[in-house]
UniProtKB/TrEMBL annotation:
It comes from the Bacteria. InterPro entries: GP_PDE_dom, PLC-like_Pdiesterase_TIM-brl. It comes from Paenibacillus agaridevorans. One of its GO terms (molecular function) is phosphoric diester hydrolase activity. This is GP-PDE domain-containing protein. Residues 4-240 form the GP-PDE domain.
């Protein structure tokens, strides 16, 4: 079978508090070859890895990331909500994740969270950080904000982008071509084998999300997707290894 990217969704988020260095490190231990994470920006301009616009669910305060300085954010406990054994885990910066990736062969899927909250200029900042780390060939930028992805390509035509979407996008590989995008990050039920084939013929690959059941992983492997985003990278790793 073709080499497939095993993207750990927010790190190994089934086993560790999501979007923490513990989750990222555990993903590597469980066989992940890629990490998917979410990028936002603090009030004072630091790029951080966190999914929600609010700090409430994972860090226990109702403040928004965009309204909070990094010095305050890096003091928050981002692990206890998941399990007491993770008390003291912090919200990592993009630079910390890039440093981890630089020491491995990880592929990074950086989701730009610029929908509910807008972060003007974040596209250029993320691309600059990725290039300074020497990882431009191992990064794909994704977003549900497709204007943001178009901007990424205008800033750097060589940076890879992936279009996030749910069900119902008609002939999405043709739409992807209008944005010069490289990948379709589709909800996994919106992926069929014939679509994977047509997309591949158009030079577009599929990285479906978030796939946690082994039967669905197998279906998508057989369909020929280029990568799968999962909370359980160990499950996907075992299936990939068993088919080699």
């Amino acid at each position: 079978m073709k080499s497939m990217i095993n993207f750990a969704h927010r790190g190994a988020s089934a086993y560790c508090p999501e979007n923490t260095m513990a989750a990222f490190a555990r993903a590597l231990e469980l066989g992940a070859t890629g990490i998917e994470t979410d990028i936002q920006r603090t009030k004072d301009g630091v790029l951080v890895c966190i999914h929600d616009e609010s700090l409430q669910r994972t860090a226990g305060t109702a403040r928004l990331v965009v309204d909070t300085d990094y010095e305050a954010i890096c003091q928050l406990d981002a692990g206890s909500w998941f399990d007491a054994s993770f008390a003291g885990e912090r919200i990592p910066t993009l630079d910390q994740l890039l440093a981890l990736a630089a020491e491995s062969e990880l592929i990074l899927n950086l989701e730009l969270k610029n929908g509910a909250v807008q972060y003007p200029g974040m596209e250029a900042e993320v691309i600059s950080a990725v290039r300074q780390a020497g990882l431009a060939d191992r990064v794909v930028l994704s977003s549900f904000n497709h204007y943001s992805l178009a901007l990424c390509k205008s800033l750097d035509p060589d940076i890879r982008t992936g279009i996030l979407y749910m069900e119902g996008l008609y002939r999405p590989w043709e739409y992807a071509a209008t944005l010069n995008a490289d990948a379709l990050h589709a909800y996994h039920f919106a992926v069929l084998p014939e679509w994977v084939k047509e997309a591949e013929e158009a030079g577009i690959v599929y990285h479906p999300f978030t796939v946690n059941e082994e039967a669905e992983m197998l279906r998508l492997i057989e369909a020929g997707v280029a990568g799968i985003i999962t909370d359980y990278p160990d499950r996907l790793h075992k299936l990939i290894q068993s088919r080699r």
